[in-house]
Write a structure and sequence with these properties.
This protein is mostly beta strands. Among the domains are: 18-96, Nuclear Transport Factor 2, Chain: A (Roll), CATH 3.10.450; 239-292 and 303-414 and 441-649, Beta-galactosidase, Chain A, domain 5. It has 9 helices and 30 strands. The protein has helices spanning 18-31, 50-59, 106-117, 120-127, 206-209, 556-560, 594-597, 655-668, 672-679; strands spanning 39-45, 66-73, 78-85, 90-96, 137-142, 159-166, 182-187, 192-198, 239-242, 245-248, 251-258, 262-272, 275-291, 303-304, 330-337, 343-365, 370-387, 390-399, 404-412, 416-418, 430-434, 437-440, 442-452, 460-468, 497-503, 521-530, 536-543, 568-572, 609-619, 629-641. A 10-stranded antiparallel β-sheet has the order 15-16-17-18-19-30-27-26-24-25. Strands 9, 10, 11, 12, 13, 14, 23, 28 and 29 form a 9-stranded antiparallel β-sheet that branches.
């Protein structure tokens, strides 16, 4: 089912409705004379700060609904930010942001492609590569970065770096035929080609010499031995959804959305003995970066920031029942604006469903031959976005044991280039995926912003890792302790080790890398709240797959996406610190965001801590990734540590008892309202 836009939101953190987007545009146009050529880059909720949300939740106080607007004035070549009060029907603020280039819009995507294909110089270069029908060309506007813009191109213009491919028909996989060596730089304000660079062809006839690599259902011989697999929930799901609030298996979650980040989750808490205990105030994937490692000048500049430079929420897919999700599904639409400021509704942008995920817990008593086993079920909240050739699925998994797993699945089609018949094809900077077609080694980095509130806002952060102790003489049998939980004495067996716990008290101390050999993870605690064992309540961030950034310190990549230098960052909460590469990474020289903020080395001792986790994926291409790569899964987990007094999933019933429990309840109560009252 889809959620329709309503005139009034249910909660101050709910995204703007269609009516509110229209109202915000009308308010600003009534107060300011705007050129009709202006582009509305975004009209989104100006999210209330935490103080306002606390007051709202405690006292049900009113919160002014405000819209945050970014406008690109194409004639003045200027970027403006505005805040509009929808309730008061007035412009609260209007400011020019000097030198800022907002993210590339969908309209600019489309117009850039047509502008390049109409350019005579580009057409001449494409003709050399066997292109006869320019309408069949595909042109993707890549972000230009900053340092690798050609010297004769004014980098102060609003630019895109256009790359081209050619199809043989409308439905053909054009990415199989890159027009390698052909580059175009486009001014997106003027919508004109400012430079075409032809580095020459590597094979004589691109259209004629490259193989078809079709992937559509009707173009492939499909295997015939797969039987139907149906997920059936005849009694419906186990959740309750009211507006944008989800309650599922003791989890309480509010679903949000921004054009920049896509899916945002608010007010994540877990119900424990009748109390909803806060875990995370706000969670999202806040930035991405995809640096390429091939020194080939046709590709060495590639360094896309897909969230900050493109607004990944604007690139989301409408999800398809029965394939993107299985079982009983609930959908949320994404209500956004187009560049004219009109309402644009993306149906089924967010999918909510349940999944079976194997064993939750089990024990067999071999003496009595009694076995207790529980199936693990998880709630999935997801969206999928297509950024040119790549497709990214973002899943947030919630488990019955109190853990949370943010996951990214990478699929789609690799960015590629051509290899000439006489070129050295030894592995390294690239791998061959098909005859004459290479895939360049690259990395994907996703930075997750986690505004943690572990039973409140006064938290502390620790690094935990294995610490072996020196082996001592055989006659000494006892390990000595220093009174602070650390061992100082001998280790006669050589087997002793402990889980070291080091507090990270400042931002600089919290800049950390994974170390799986030491079992490193990070633990955030509330020192003012304890469990029944008098231990501070907490959660740990446990890394999964990850990789260190391969770019050099002085590179454009590290200047513009400095957050990828470390896997973990910690900062004290600030309203205006939302994006790890800065507010306007498009064409920025860099050194904004996390690297700049953390130079202050602010305290993290008893503070409202925000964790930033950079999840990295290394991609060395292979033929098995072609023509569409199998989805690659990368994730990390947030798991409770001393947050509960025992396994919180110990009360999950076995599968055979679920039906019996519901039947007994139905027999006990004839009125559904009585069932609900009994649950309370």
């Amino acid at each position: 089912m889809a959620i329709e836009a309503k005139a009034i939101a249910d909660h101050p953190l709910d995204p703007l409705t269609g009516e509110e987007i229209t109202a915000a545009r009308e308010i600003i146009e009534n107060e300011r004379e705007l050129d009709p050529e202006n582009r509305y880059v975004k009209i989104v909720l100006d999210e209330p700060n935490k103080t306002e949300i606390r007051e709202y939740e405690a006292e049900n106080s009113s919160v002014d609904r405000q819209a945050f607007i970014i406008i690109r004035d194409r004639n003045e070549k200027a970027t403006y930010e505005a805040v509009v009060s929808i309730d008061q029907e007035e412009v609260v603020s209007w400011e020019e942001i000097s030198g800022a280039q907002p993210s590339v819009t969908l309209a600019e995507f489309d117009e850039c492609e047509e502008t390049v294909k109409d350019n005579p110089e580009w057409q001449e270069a494409a003709s050399k590569r066997g292109v006869e029908n320019f309408d069949l060309a595909m042109v993707d506007p890549w972000s230009v970065g900053h340092h690798l813009v050609p010297d004769d191109v004014d980098r102060n213009r609003r630019l895109a770096h256009a790359m081209s491919w050619i199809r043989t028909s409308e439905e053909d996989n054009g990415y199989a035929r890159p027009l390698d060596g052909l580059h175009a730089w486009v001014d997106l304000d003027e919508m004109e080609v400012v430079k075409v660079l032809d580095r020459g062809t590597k094979i004589d006839d691109v259209v004629g010499e490259l193989e078809d690599r079709k992937y559509r259902e009707e173009d492939r011989d499909l295997r015939t031995d797969l039987k139907p697999y149906n997920v059936d929930q005849p009694e419906g799901p186990s959740w309750e959804i009211e507006g944008r609030k989800i309650e599922w298996q003791k989890w309480h979650i509010r679903v949000g959305w921004t054009q920049r980040e896509g899916l945002v989750l608010h007010n994540i808490g877990y119900e424990d003995d009748g109390e909803v205990r806060k875990v995370i105030h706000r969670a999202s994937a806040a930035e991405m970066n995809v640096p390429y490692g091939d020194p080939d000048p046709n590709h060495n500049w590639k360094n896309a920031g897909d969230i900050g430079e493109y607004n990944i929420g604007r690139l989301a897919n409408p999800l398809t029942e029965g394939c993107d999700c299985l079982g009983y599904m609930h959908y949320f639409d994404a209500v956004m604006n187009d560049t004219n400021g009109e309402v644009n509704v993306l149906p089924n942008a967010i999918c909510v469903h349940e999944e079976d995920h194997g064993t939750l817990w089990k024990h067999t008593n071999w003496r009595t031959e009694n076995t207790e086993v529980r199936r693990k079920r998880r709630l999935v909240i997801s969206f999928v976005a297509t950024v040119g050739n790549y497709d990214y699925e973002f899943n947030w998994y919630f488990y019955q044991d109190g853990s949370v797993e943010p996951e990214v699945r990478l699929t789609g089609i690799n960015s590629n280039g051509l290899v000439g018949p006489d070129e050295d094809r030894s592995p390294g900077y690239y791998e061959m995926m098909a005859p004459n077609v290479k895939g360049m080694v690259h990395q994907h980095f996703f930075n997750f912003r986690l505004d943690m509130d572990i039973d409140g806002e006064e938290n502390v952060l620790y690094r935990r890792q294995n610490q072996p102790i020196p082996k001592g003489p055989g006659e000494q049998q006892e390990i000595e302790w220093d009174g602070q939980g650390n061992t100082t004495g001998p280790n006669p067996s050589g087997a002793a080790f402990y889980a070291d716990k080091t507090q990270l008290k400042t931002e600089q101390e919290a800049q950390d890398l994974i170390d799986s050999l030491k079992g490193r993870y990070w633990q955030i605690e509330n020192p003012n709240k304890t469990n029944s064992l008098d231990q501070p309540v907490g959660y740990k961030l446990a890394p999964g797959e990850n990789v260190q950034a391969a770019a050099q310190e002085e590179s454009s990549v590290m200047k513009r996406a400095g957050y990828i230098k470390y896997h973990l960052w910690g900062t004290p909460y600030r309203d205006d610190e939302r994006y790890p590469a800065g507010n306007y990474p498009n064409q920025s020289p860099g050194e904004e965001g996390l690297p700049k903020w953390t130079e202050q080395d602010r305290s993290l001792d008893g503070e409202d801590i925000v964790l930033w986790y950079s999840l990295g994926v290394n991609h060395v291409d292979r033929p098995e990734d072609w023509p569409v790569l199998p989805s690659h899964h990368a994730s990390f987990k947030l798991e409770p540590v001393n947050f509960f007094d025992e396994n919180p999933s110990i009360d999950v019933p076995p599968e055979h008892a679920i039906k019996d429990i519901h039947e007994r309840r139905e027999q006990k109560y004839s009125n559904p309202d009585d069932v609900a009252a009994d649950d309370d």
